[in-house]
Amino acid sequence: IAMVVGHEIAHALREHGREKVSQAMAQTLIGSVVLGALQTSESQAKMASQVADVMLTLPNSRKNETEADKIGLEIAARAGFNPAAAVSVWQKMGAASSGARPPEFLSTHPANESRIADLTHMQAAVAPLYQAASKQ
Fold this sequence. Notes:
It is a single chain. This protein is mostly helical. The chain contains five helices and no strands. The protein has helices spanning 2-13, 16-38, 42-78, 84-96, 112-134. It starts with a helix and ends with a helix.
């Protein structure tokens, strides 16, 4: 639970929601101007929107999720929660969602396997924070 709460706090601290709204507004404005100037059909406009999502929106969303994982892991470690437990969260999530998932590049979130690898890699950086918190 500490990892999930830390992750959500990180989204708030980094203002990811506000950033997403700003990006969507800019994307809509640019798309409207370009598509209006080119006098495209409705189907061409929909395709352009889908391409923009895959090229711009989804990678930024995954980047924000990874950033929230990293900051959330640090918050949890500073609060005295074992950062190694974060890896088990995503292992359990992977086991619980055994159904077909879209490829990572079509998702707003990193794949469970990517998160596990990233969180495993981050363990050494937050271990001293956890150890210091555990001594208090």
